[in-house]
Design goal:
Number of domains: 1
Structural class: mainly alpha
Pfam families: Mito_carr (PF00153)
Number of strands: 0
Strand content: under 5%
Helix content: over 70%
InterPro entries: MCP (IPR002067), MCP_dom_sf (IPR023395), MCP_transmembrane (IPR018108), Mito/Peroxisomal_Carrier (IPR052217)
Shape: globular
Protein name: Solute carrier family 25 member 17
Distance between the termini: 18 Å
Oligomer: single chain
Radius of gyration: 20 Å
GO molecular function, one term: FMN transmembrane transporter activity
CATH superfamily: Mitochondrial carrier domain
Membrane topology: Multi-pass membrane protein
Length: about 300
């Protein structure tokens, strides 16, 4: 089993996934900025994504849509490296060369997601705050922050809120491991259907389309939890609306969901979904395209191309 876990094959998958995700996120980063503003700034009226971006540029400057790019890219690179490495190493250990199935992909995706969440949540908490720092919010209850960088954000959060604050939003994040798990299950399943047992490399168009479909389904299903995750990571939700600070994470999540639904209706749980779908679908599609091309090229150079396709 150790040979599958610690292998060049898993390392190639991890590096390809990390490079692909960083490149794709950089291209579509402004769309993620629009999505995040709609999720955490409750008083901002939901508008089309171009309108939100135009508003941000007008009020905060031309570079505002790329605010917080570096910490997000660092977090994304680490997160996708861990996820791709765990997913493919666990898959190799489980299958031992046999054909995979949808249920197997889902279980392995969940396991990889849990490891990823526990390891990288502090990075995502910091990058959420840095990305929103200096923003002009419609909600007057949001307190301004003053972090000079990633390390300073870590120091201030630990000093002012305790070490546990670095794992804010961990519980919804653990529930949200279903997002990449569903995404990979659909993606791998569609790949098997397109190949129909023939070990061939998919075209760029095929990879882009199935990557987009897989992410669109996963995002729509889990979006309300993603909104709560962003609010918790930002660290400025109003706990007084809940009965006690000692409530479990599950009660807090339920409270935030119910309060948001009561205040804005059920559609309030999906505020920012248009921006999220636009950003995440395009990003995931480009990421999978780059990942497949980088990994297949690397495996071809290593003389492992045929074996690579057969195992998937």
């Amino acid at each position: 089993m150790s040979s599958e876990v610690f292998s060049y094959r898993s390392l190639v998958h991890a590096l390809s996934g990390a490079v692909g995700s960083v490149t794709a996120m950089t291209v579509f980063f402004p769309l993620d900025t629009a999505r995040l503003r709609l999720q955490v700034d409750e008083n901002r009226k939901a508008k089309s994504t171009p309108a939100i971006l135009a508003e941000i540029v007008k009020e905060e400057g031309l570079l505002a849509p790329y605010r917080g790019w570096f910490p997000v890219i660092c977090s994304l690179c680490c997160s996708n490296f861990v996820y791709f490495y765990c997913f493919h190493s666990l898959k190799a250990s489980w299958l031992k060369g046999n054909q995979s199935a949808a249920s197997t992909d889902l279980i392995i995706g969940i396991a990889a997601g849990v490891v990823n969440v526990l390891v990288t949540t502090p990075l995502w908490v910091v990058n959420t705050r840095l990305k929103l720092q200096g923003s002009k919010f419609r909600n007057a209850d949001i307190r301004p922050t003053n972090y000079s960088g990633i390390l300073d954000a870590f120091v201030q959060i630990i000093r002012d809120e305790g070490v546990g604050a670095l794992w804010n939003g961990t519980f919804p994040s653990l529930l949200l491991v279903l997002n990449p798990a569903i995404q990979f299950m659909i993606y791998e399943g569609l790949k098997r259907q397109l190949r129909r047992g023939v070990p061939r490399e998919l075209s760029a168009a095929e990879v882009f389309i199935i990557g987009a479909v897989a992410k669109a389904v996963a995002t729509t299903v889990t979006y309300p939890l993603q909104t709560i995750q962003s609010i918790l990571r930002f660290g400025q939700f109003n706990e007084s609306t809940c009965e006690s600070k000692l409530l479990s994470s599950l009660r807090i999540i339920k409270c935030l969901l119910v309060n948001r639904a009561r205040k804005y209706g059920m559609l309030g749980l999906f505020k920012g979904l248009e921006a999220k779908l636009l950003q995440t679908v395009l990003t995931a599609a480009l990421m999978f395209l780059l990942y497949e091309k980088i990994s297949s090229c690397t495996f071809r150079v290593m003389g492992l191309s045929n074996n690579h396709y057969k195992k998937h």
